[in-house]
From TrEMBL:
One of its GO terms (cellular component) is aminoacyl-tRNA synthetase multienzyme complex. Pfam families: tRNA-synt_2, tRNA_anti-codon. Belongs to the class-II aminoacyl-tRNA synthetase family. Type 2 subfamily. The gene is aspS. SUPFAM superfamilies: Class II aaRS and biotin synthetases, Nucleic acid-binding proteins. L-aspartate binds at residues 199, 243, 395, 399. This is Aspartate--tRNA ligase. It comes from the Bacteria. PROSITE patterns: AA_TRNA_LIGASE_II. Residues 166-469 form the Aminoacyl-transfer RNA synthetases class-II family profile domain.
Length: 469
């Protein structure tokens, strides 16, 4: 018989089934034993009516074990019955000794019974095979700290809520990929070993590379832009990015999955935002449809499909809104800080009923050299940040594609054009105007599910003091 996933038991008729998974709890009531068995899809109650085994089998077997000739005299029927009793007794003993986490394979009789709280069904155990034993003491409990849970991430991930996070991630990523593929984007895989920085130099991981030095890619920025003069038109990538960021906030990791897109022939950052919000709309629709009810049950979040278009607010106005709300951001001409982002999002929710907001037209002083500046006002850029439920999840922009302007802007930011020659070459042989965005996957999931840290929504978190497991 093949194994049935626990979530697939419910529609089956009463009858023989095989299930496999790990033991969550054992309730040994002596006259009857209950095991809660869990697999990747759910949990089911197993029952062993042990009474018979203990009362009949125990005595008869021990009697016969003492008197071998009596056993020999038994007729075939009695011997079969005795074997069955032996097996039942062994089963009862095995169940009594099962530690939490033990992996078992079970065959038994499925029975629908409305009185069973867990899913209205149970499986009466015929055979139970211990496939892999667990140590008796589990190193983490429900109330363990997040850090301790991360030490034992493989056990932590057995929680149904953790499992759900990564099912949601799968659906979200799949839907984004489908959006891109349906809209004729090309998927690219850019190298994560680089000869230079692509974002801030301060957050660069350096490593020995044969006789020289290499850097871990902070973003596919340069290479997704390269696809524009390469004539690819529209590209996307979902891949790791690395930042030597020493901060311990709930939203920063040293390695994270970045969702990047870049498209040709944009007229401004508005075209990028439209593509960005449509992709998110498609991905949220898929998540709400597939997991809306489970997310509500597990996290108490009633996830909504974000209405199109998302609100757009220029940074200067965002600063005003936050200031009028009584909060002073650390630098009046700087970016919003986390508290400023929270306040702006709350204002947007109250005034536009939206969980997302594009903050647009950042000052060129706080944007990288490759962002295109406003025509006629070089102090502002054709760029945006996307906030979701009070936190930045993405940065996007139209890029500067005129090589002379690009060189000038690089110099202004203290970068030597010689270091960027390979990148600058992209702009010397014909390049369409273009733009794109980068978005942190774990941040989107954290905010979508109302969780407090990207450590929960990253399969294996990497931070300044965490390189294991
Ligand atoms: P930026 O540096 O703003 O832009 O990054 C884009 C998005 O990536 C996520 N992110 C992070 N997530 C976890 N830990 C980190 N340390 C971390 N750093 C960034 C955030 C952020 O909004 N090249 C540009 C994008 C572009 O213009 O296309 C860039 O990397 O969600």
């Amino acid at each position: 018989m093949t194994r049935t996933l626990i979530a697939h038991l419910s529609p089956l008729p009463d009858g023989p089934v095989e299930v496999a998974g790990w033991v969550e709890t054992v309730r040994d009531q002596k006259k009857v034993q209950f095991v809660i068995l869990r697999d990747e899809t759910g949990a089911v109650q197993l029952v062993n009516p042990a009474t018979r085994a203990l009362e009949l089998g125990g005595e008869a077997i021990s009697g016969l074990d003492r008197d071998a000739s009596a056993a020999h005299r038994l007729d075939e029927r009695s011997r079969d019955e005795l074997d069955a009793q032996r097996a039942a007794l062994a089963l009862t003993e095995t169940i009594g000794g099962l530690a939490h986490g033990t992996m078992v394979r079970v065959s038994g009789e499925l029975k629908h019974d409305e009185r069973v709280k867990l899913g209205g069904l149970e499986v009466k155990i015929d055979t139970l095979e211990v496939v892999s034993e667990a140590l008796p003491e589990t190193p983490i409990a429900e109330d363990s700290s997040l850090d301790k849970r991360l030490d034992w991430r493989f056990l932590d991930l057995r929680r149904p809520e953790a499992n759900l996070i990564f099912r949601v991630q799968t659906t979200f990523e799949h839907a984004l990929r489908s959006y891109f593929v349906e809209n004729e984007y090309i998927e690219i895989h850019t190298p994560k070993l680089m000869a230079s920085a692509s974002e801030s130099r301060a957050e660069l991981f350096e490593l020995g590379y044969f006789e020289g030095t290499a850097y871990l890619a902070q973003s596919p920025q340069f290479f997704k832009q390269m696809a524009q003069p390469a004539g690819f038109g529209k590209v996307f990538e979902i891949a790791p990015a690395f930042r030597a960021d020493p901060s311990f906030t709930s939203r920063h990791a040293t390695e994270f999955t970045s969702i990047d897109a870049e498209i040709s022939w944009v007229r401004s950052h508005e075209d990028v935002m439209q593509m960005h919000e449509q992709a998110l709309h498609a991905a949220f629709s898929a998540v709400v449809e597939k997991h809306g009810a489970a997310i509500e049950a597990a996290f108490g979040v009633s996830l909504e499909i974000p209405a199109l278009p998302f609100p757009r607010i220029p940074l200067a106005e965002a600063r005003r809104i936050v200031a009028e709300g009584g909060y002073e951001i650390p630098r009046a001409d700087g970016d919003l800080d986390p508290e400023g982002e929270r306040r702006l999002s709350a204002w947007v929710k109250a005034n536009h009923g939206h969980d997302f907001v594009f903050v647009t037209d950042y000052d060129s002083t706080i944007r990288p050299f490759y962002h295109m500046r406003h025509e006629g006002d070089a102090s502002l850029t054709n760029s945006y940040d996307l906030l979701f439920n009070g936190v930045e999840i993405s940065t996007g922009a139209q890029r500067e594609h005129r090589v002379d302007v690009l060189i000038e802007q690089a110099r202004e930011k203290g970068l030597e054009p010689e270091e960027l020659e390979f990148y600058l070459d992209f702009f010397r042989y014909g390049v369409p105007p273009h733009g794109g965005f980068g978005m942190g996957l774990a941040r989107v999931l954290m905010l979508m599910l109302g969780l407090s840290s990207i450590r929960e929504t990253t399969y294996l978190f990497r931070g300044p003091t965490r390189l294991t497991p």
